[in-house]
Amino acid sequence: MITTVTMNASLDKAYFMKAPIVNGTVMRLDSCRTSAGGKGVNVARIVALCGAKVQATGLTGGFNGQQLEALLDKDGIAHQFGHMEGETRCCINILDQKYGSTEYLEPGCEVSASEEQQFMQRYPDIIRDSDVVTISGSIPRGVKKDIYGRMATIAKAMGKAVILDSSGETLKQGIQSCPTVVKPNRDEIEQLFDIKIHSMQDVIRCAEKIREIGIPYVITSLGKDGALLACEDGIFHGKPPVVEVVNTVGCGDSMVGAFAVALERKLEAEESLRYAVAVATANAMSPNTGDFDPKNLEDLLGRVAVEQI
Ligand SMILES: Nc1ncnc2c1ncn2[C@@H]1O[C@H](COP(=O)(O)OP(=O)(O)OP(=O)(O)O)[C@@H](O)[C@H]1O
Ligand SMILES: [Mg+2]
Fold first, then answer.
1. For residue range 213-266, what is the model confidence (pLDDT) as tens digits?
2. Ligand 1 atom nearest residue 253's Cα
3. Residue 134's domain is classified under what CATH number?
4. CB distance 284 to ligand 1 below 6 Å
5. Is 0.85 topped by the overall pTM?
6. What range does the domain containing 225 cover?
7. Would you tell me how many other CB atoms lie within 10 Å of the CB of residue 22?
8. How many domains, in total, are found in the chain?
9. Is 185 touching ligand 1 by the criterion CB < 6 Å?
10. How many whole angstroms from 250 Cα to the centroid of ligand 2?
């Protein structure tokens, strides 16, 4: 089984508008959709679509939290969330013809030290039956910045593989606990090393620096340029085929979900990268976040080029 951790989950609302937004006026929506959100929740949906067993964990609270869990039930995704006093935040994405996507992200509630502690006490029990634990996204206010590192250390001591996909300070602190995999994107690498990436050689240099800390697999995702995997078996560049791109939000989460499945299935490094790039490409072809049509996968797997550098 794979457990996906989302500490900063959200109730996502997509507002679809036929008319372009006119600021300062009353706008009526054409339609709207509410879904369970947060990066680890996207990962869980992808793992389920890959046909692997999955459960979602993290923190939820209030009526929004209840709704988020009910939406996961509806999607058939198992979950064991810790509960907090505060309300799970809402994130609103307004989609119109003029601006494309405009997102409003609530700051979210503050988590108390005792809520964090209670969750961490339950955490070993929650992940007990999992082979892989994925940890994604930001942390809510009040949670200590080293939490991902502590989660990685506990999971590794229990013999589990850990994938960390975060940014800024939580990524910086998290990598010190040597998760099995980290998946930064270009911006996250630049921020981590305080540099500008100009070439593939720059990406390789940064990946090797992360590997030297003691991290077996470093996947740097590069949007339409695919992803670079640095591991013991070598350095591989996975290149997606040209497809009709509909929505790239959640492509990184898709890559994390697929790589978790590949780790659980014990695929070779090269095949794991091929699988992760194919699933991420399939997500880019879907209008929904953390979603793909499994019918496209076979064809995409054959069209992803993996080159050893
Ligand atoms: N325009 C695109 N065309 C084809 N594949 C894409 C495109 N954008 C992303 N992908 C695929 O998705 C993978 C992850 O994308 P990206 O580097 O944008 O991740 P990310 O920035 O972490 O995304 P997010 O955090 O929104 O999930 C890429 O390595 C690539 O395989
Ligand atoms: Mg990402």
1. 999 999 999 999 999 999 999 999 999 999 999 989 999 999 999 999 999 999
2. 27
3. 3.40.1190.20
4. yes
5. yes
6. 2-308
7. 10
8. 1
9. yes
10. 7
